[in-house]
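Contributing new records

If you add data, match the layout below exactly. Sequence lines come first and carry their own label; structure lines follow with theirs. Keep one chain per record. Anything else will be rejected by the validation script.
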Amino acid sequence: MRNRLIILLFISIISLPSYSQKLNFFDPSPKFNRSRLTGIEIAAGAMYVSSMFGLYELWYKDYPQSKFHLFNDNAEWMQMDKGGHCVVAYYLGGLGINVLNWAGVKKNNAIWYGGMVGAVYNTTFEVMDGFSSEYGFSLGDMGANFLGAFIVIGEQLAWNEQRIKLKFSYHHSPEASLRPDLLGSNFPENAIKDYNGLSDWVSINVNSFMNRKSVIPNWMNLAVGYGADGMLGARINPVSYNGKELPQLDRHRQYYVSLDIDLSQINTKSKALNTALDILNLIKVMAPALEYNRVTNFLFHPLYF
């Protein structure tokens, strides 16, 4: 849950200086620029401290502290929360690479140091979880964090671009109204907490892998997605909520194949609009999708989000 909030808040704060490489003022420096790197260090430090304080107030303040301990949450939410960790680390790593490129840092250094930003940032929360009686340090979360970082680093080293992007999408699910305490009581909360409506996607730019000119537009991607449904609790579904009996839902996984649009491949005459498209590229667009799950088997969605 928290990691979906992190990616929305953090990207909205720091996307402009990183993804705005298309803006003249933010064009990457052709050589190492100490003043730019110093500005990045100051801004990143301030954002880090302020975000730590804010999330402490939101997540940890009301729970007692404890000795550092581990917590195995790998079986929770049918691993949908792990997708959130991976996507956050992937996008923050991409932002880290971009800002270091902007400062003229050597290519490989920018990729490795910048690409690890998301995993290192998320590690802070895992440590804080480890000292909270309500949570605990999760090795599964850490694995997902570093997976996201290694994906963005690996692609940048191999291709000098991100041909395979991690994305997510959300639609309101019927389960959200059954457990508003856990799945959110309004749309912004639902989009972060309701794993029944969230989907994680791997969006592949097919054209980037083809050596000859293709009839497929550069902005057209093939997307493979994962989701889960029927969840009214992290591990099992409760039988009642606030004294009212809850329906017995079948918890199951969902797999998708769909089309997507790589917004970063759409170039307009407005550099500000190009930057906005880059930022929005973390969200998979609504498109036809073929779903498979063990309850309904194959199911076609004319439009799925």
